[in-house]
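Summary for the funding panel

The consortium committed to producing paired sequence-structure records for every protein in the target list. Below we show the first two records in order, beginning with the earlier of the two.
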Amino acid sequence: MTLSGQGAFPTNRGRVNQKARTRTALLQAAAELVREGMPPSVPEAADRALVSVATAYRYFSSGEDLWWEASNAAISGSVEEVELTVEAAGDDSQARLEALIRGLGFQMLEDQVPFRRITLIAQEQWFHQGDASQGERVPTREGSNAQIRHAIAPLRSHVAKKDLDRIAHALGLVVGSEAMISLIDAVGLDVPTAKKTLLNAARWLLAGALAELTDAEAE
């Protein structure tokens, strides 16, 4: 009995590992398709990952579910690198914010497809919840709030929490895929000009907020 149980354990573990490899292969295939601008399709991802469509649907019930994870997987490594760059900028919040914009913001402008895909899926999820009450709605995505607060973290030592919240909320206008879409689609800028504009807007927002707080303390 003991030997039988010991023999079964590697088999079960092997199945778990195989499932993890299959899921990873599907995500990698979908991430490649995201970068190519392909629409959500579980069969397309399954074909590229050399997995049967029936098997793929056991891991992802819809193209939207697959593309949501794949789009985030396509950019997760870059986000981690940007966070390290921000940390390397030291304790100056302005320098840290500029590092965030030059990293994540510039990447969004240079490689728009995965970020536009995330935005599209988030919008579709928002519309799917249109009939739900405010209390029943769930967030459509994580957003860039964590990256913003990480960048301005040094301000916590001398800025009140309510004011820090106000600054973080305002910076949401320049950190995120919506800023990229606004500058490129609505304003009609090319990528180099959009980069300069995004960086200027971030500088002006933070500098203006800190100047306002300084003036308020002097009164």
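The next record, for a separate protein in the list, is shown here:
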Amino acid sequence: MRLKAIFAFTSTLLVSVASALAPAPAVAQVTLTYSDWQAAETVWGRSLREALDAFEKANPDIKVNLEPVALGQRDTRYTTALRSGKGPDVFALDANPIKRYIQEGWVRDLTPFLAKEPNFLADWYPTLLGPVTDNGKISGIPKNISPTLLIYNTALFKDAGIANPPKNWDEFRDAAKKLTKATKPGGPVDQWGTLLVLARAGFDLRMSSVLRGFGADYLTPDNKHSALNTPEAKKAFNFVVDMINVDKSMVPGVAQVDANGGRQLMAGGKVGMILEGLTIPTIADMNPALEARKTLRASGIPQDPASKSKVRSLIYMKSLFMNPNTPHPDAAWRLLRFMNDRAQQERWFNDSGLLSARRSVNETYKPIQDDPFATVGTKEIEFASFLPQIPQWPEILETVRQSLQAAVARTKTADQALADAHQEIEKILARP
């Protein structure tokens, strides 16, 4: 009996030791996909990867795959996938297509999650919640914002004898002519005054700023009719076409330049000024030799002295959304929260220069208060607004873009191209 007892004790001890030495059972892991067009950019890509690494460490039961998508292909890829019940679990959108995504059911209603955290959005600017809200239901969380500004190269301005950034469009046009030149005597023109993004990716922010800078807009205030038949709209449209075709103060091939291409030209010192958001870190990363934070400066969008409109620019806003088809909504919500908490909002500014959708971050975070670009940006917010928040907006914007392309290519006169855009938009808005 004693031997049996010893054997039993020894067996129990061995089992206990084996259990202690055995590896702990693996944590059950959920895999999410986070998709963002800026993941393909150097600065933003690095920032997003670091944020997702931090999220995974804080949430060891969740793994996140980062999925880049080209901005020009984003909506086609997302909507195709979402219609078939697929697509990324969490994804980013700018303000333009949000209403269509909501009304088509391509994003998940976040109201049930927010109901459990009633104070979660108390720190957000109320106006920023408008685009992500429909019939009282919130479908997205605003992340970063920036008004469109005039970004200019002080070294090129000094060399061209331009003392100050242009305040009106006549000054802007004159400055662009002075900045356009051959940098080597007898050589070809290799420096230009400015550019306007005419490719899909980024057209909205730039052309809209010109329109509003002239006191014009795309639609009437009730969003029921086109406003492109006004004298102000005609003036703005012809101004752009003449700078390209007559002055030739914009980069050749400007019709194909997208937002990132515009930043690259600015980084390379090839243009003196651009209409751009607070993307100075991205420009700096493209060409460290430029010393962008020293060489570049920001100003408000030029204004037509005859304009009586307070709105002179627009707000770029990036928000995060949840796929209605995700099999892991609770995990996706945890990721949404993390990407918008205060620490991450501060990270986005430190890395990429964009302002926060959270009021307290912009008003109390010292690096924002001390930054010469951010201080201009925060002042311009009150003069900026969103583009029309209607489902037809993406189609309307593309109609205007193609009409401007036709005028630049001289397949239509500027007046005819604008008149055609006006009529086509009227048809779009008249559809049941």
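Regarding this second record: The first helix runs from residue 2 to 21. The first strand starts at residue 30 and ends at 36.
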